[in-house]
Design brief:
With about 700 residues, this protein is an alpha+beta fold. The chain contains 25 helices and 16 strands. About 40% of the residues are buried. The model has no long low-confidence stretch (mean pLDDT about 90). It is found in: Cytoplasm.
């Protein structure tokens, strides 16, 4: 076995490209080796801003050999009447490189065909690798490719060198004007090179010692964290780590060198969010906080070299950050002198979305929705009547900070600054928290608002956007979702479930539609728009639960019973999923599906109105009486369990009932000649199906 190294050297790549390219090269090269029948150990990849490297520690020196059977023309065409090869048969033998004596007839199931066995593979890996390397380089994808020089080849950034070694031999391939060799380049300042690599075994040693490059991104991260923690500890504090920023910083450097910088203590009067945003977004630096959790007058940045004059470099970083903090301080002081009403007035001139009016209009609609939501949830969430106005005010002020100086400059602080300003102006926790958390959840992996007011403002904001967009016919199609409506629907669903909100989804969406002005010219009639919204929510909930590992049929069955009450949907689905794993599940489904099918065919499809009301006096026989009695006895227990949200108990109740239903089907003719008795029996089954239908659509389950 040999060792293989491929290195693609480039101009500095954006940090977001780096990990993706490493993962892509690993997958692509492994797949190419497999397709080429070259046996190899796992492909390992490493990436820095200036290089992408693939390493195969053990790679076979020759292709694997395999014998395969190749079929040719049908034998009736391959041979003439005298049994001699025709032109078609001889051509097949020539194409496959086999003698006539090695041909044979083979029955393929579709007829008899001429066939030959041939051995494939066996080529030298060194001869195959050039083509694989070229394919691997060409297959790497980028959000946007670029040309350089006068060449036709495109890549994410200009390619400056190619290194490809199979042990000590160069694997020669050419990309545009560049041919691979054994030379690599190092850190631009600390070891620019070029350096010749004698063999693949020497590569990592040359990269570390001569090139001064830490090629493993995990090693770069460990260095930043370890050194950052050490430096912060010396100051009596700790680093405010941000995982996303740490990944980005590790992919911005080839030789990480953490450095502590200082800021003037007067900037500590700024909100923590503003300070961290200034450090993280613009300077890719981390804050330092003390044992009390308050930020200290320091920051941690990461250099890409060992400076000869640390003090000078430190001063440069501090000067740049100071400029950002000075701007932030100016915006903070300016905003603190402005009243919310001034911002609300400005919102009247900010367009929300074409025909849907201004952001001021949207704020009023959110205010209305928050008020209604707080009213609906008053009893279940212990909202006092006097607090409803505060929830409404949170909605009214939710968008005010969009025209503040701070958010215009630091748009990632929208919502947060509004909440901070509201708290500073003594608006109370309900208002300030509602504004602060209104944009949560921002995605599937971000938390929902922690406060109830944040949850209500977020739901109102998202529902308003959805109702408006669906009314204008801007329903997402395919991958096109410019208004993030899928994220809105999932956000609402997650908030309802995680906050255990007793909200009727359809009523809530109707309220969102009703909050719009009557003057808006909708492109989709509001009834149809509501239907589309409900269908959209059903699709998103299906995607949410199947993504969490629930069986698709169980999800469909749970959704089929309705999802107006999203709060209990997941509990109902979990109980149903548990039920599907029980030994008697299949028999239970068959029984209940039989009842549902009879009601569907003899009720809706036959035009027969069934109410679920039955008369015990019309029961005939022990089985029918027993079923009716059991169903009646079950009623109060079913309602109690439903009220308590005990869906596992409800499934157990169905299990108790099933023997009576089976006995009924075994001993009673439902479609008897007596019309009155027949109708009574159908209504008896209808009463059963109505209860089942609240739990799940059993017809969606397949056994």
């Amino acid at each position: 076995m040999a060792e293989f190294i491929l290195e693609i050297g480039t101009e500095e790549m954006p940090a977001r490209f780096v990990p993706k390219l490493a993962a892509e090269l690993k997958e692509t090269f492994g797949k190419l080796l497999d397709e080429a029948m070259v046996e190899a150990a796992e492909v390992r990849t490493f990436a820095t801003p200036r290089r992408i490297t693939a390493q195969v520690v053990a790679i076979a020196e020759a292709q694997r050999q395999e014998e395969e059977t190749v079929t040719g023309p049908p034998t009736r065409i391959a041979y003439d009447a005298d049994g001699n090869l025709t032109k078609a048969g001889a051509g097949f033998a020539k194409t496959q490189g086999v003698a006539e004596a090695d041909l044979f007839k083979m029955d393929t199931g579709k007829g008899e065909y001429l066939a030959a066995k041939k051995v494939v593979g066996g080529g030298k890996t060194a001869d195959i690798l050039p083509e694989l390397c070229l394919k691997a380089v060409e297959s790497l994808s980028f959000p946007k490719r670029m040309h350089w020089g006068g060449y036709d080849f495109t890549f994410g950034r200009p390619v400056r060198w190619l290194l490809a070694l199979l042990d000590d031999a160069v694997v020669e391939f050419t990309v545009e004007n560049m041919t691979s060799g054994r030379e690599t380049r190092g850190h631009r300042v600390m070891g620019p090179g070029p350096f010749a690599v004698a063999s693949s075994a020497d590569y990592f040693s040359v990269i570390e010692n001569d090139c001064k490059v830490v090629i493993d991104p995990e090693e770069r991260k460990k260095t930043i964290v370890a050194e950052g923690d050490r430096l912060a500890k010396e100051l009596g504090g700790e680093i405010v780590w941000n995982d996303g920023l740490l990944d980005e910083v590790a992919n911005l450097v080839e030789y990480p060198k953490p450095l502590i910088g200082d800021i003037d203590e007067l900037y500590l009067e700024l909100p923590r969010e503003v300070l961290l945003t200034s450090m993280q977004s613009h300077q890719k630096s981390f804050g330092v906080q003390g044992p009390d959790g308050k930020l200290m007058a320091h920051f941690l940045t990461t250099l890409n070299l060992e400076p000869t004059d640390v003090a000078l470099v430190k001063k440069g970083w501090e000067r740049v950050l100071k400029a950002r903090l000075e701007d932030a301080r100016f915006f903070w002081e300016a905003d603190c002198e402005v009243e919310f009403q001034t911002w609300l007035d400005k919102l009247e001139n900010v367009v929300f979305l074409g025909p849907l009016g201004s952001v001021g209009d949207k704020a009023r609609r959110i205010e209305t929705l928050c008020s209604k939501l707080a009213g609906m949830l008053g009893e279940s969430k212990s909202i006092l009547p006097g607090e409803i106005a505060e929830y409404a005010e949170a909605g009214r002020l939710a968008k005010a900070d969009l025209v503040s100086e701070m958010v215009i400059e630091f748009d990632s602080l929208q919502g947060k600054m509004g909440g901070i300003y509201a708290a500073r102006k003594d608006k109370g926790d309900i208002v300030s928290q509602g504004i602060y958390e209104q944009y949560l959840p921002a995605g599937p992996d971000t938390p929902v608002p922690s406060s109830l007011s944040g949850a209500l403002v977020s739901m109102a904001d998202k529902a308003d956007t959805m109702a408006g967009c669906f009314g204008l016919g801007k329903k997402p199609t395919g991958a096109n979702d410019p208004y993030a409506l899928r994220r809105c629907a999932l956000g609402i669903a997650r908030i309802i479930m995680e906050h255990d909100l007793d909200v009727d989804l359809e009523v809530f969406l109707k309220n969102a539609q009703a909050a719009y002005s009557k003057d808006i010219k909708w492109k989709v009639e509001q009834g149809e728009s509501l239907s589309n919204l409900m269908e959209f929510f059903g699709q998103r909930l299906r995607a949410l639960f199947t993504g969490q590992g629930f069986d698709t049929l169980a999800v469909d069955a749970a959704l089929g019973a309705g999802f107006n009450d999203i709060r209990t949907l997941k509990a109902r689905l979990e109980a149903l999923a548990d039920f599907t794993r029980e030994a008697d599940f299949e028999q239970a489904v068959l029984t209940f599906k039989r009842a549902a099918n009879i009601i569907r065919k003899q009720g809706d499809e036959a035009g027969q109105v069934l109410t679920g009301g039955y008369t015990k006096e019309l029961f005939e026989g022990e089985a029918e009486t027993a079923f009716g009695t059991r169903l009646e006895e079950m009623g109060p227990r079913f309602d109690d369990l439903w009220q308590a949200g005990d869906f596992a108990g409800l499934m157990g109740l169905l299990r108790e009932l099933r023997p009576s239903v089976d006995a009924f089907f075994d001993n009673v003719m439902v479609m008897c000649d007596d019309q009155e008795v027949r109708l009574n029996r159908l209504n008896l089954l209808k009463a059963l199906v109505d209860k089942l239908g609240r739990l799940a659509d059993f017809s969606a389950l397949q056994v």
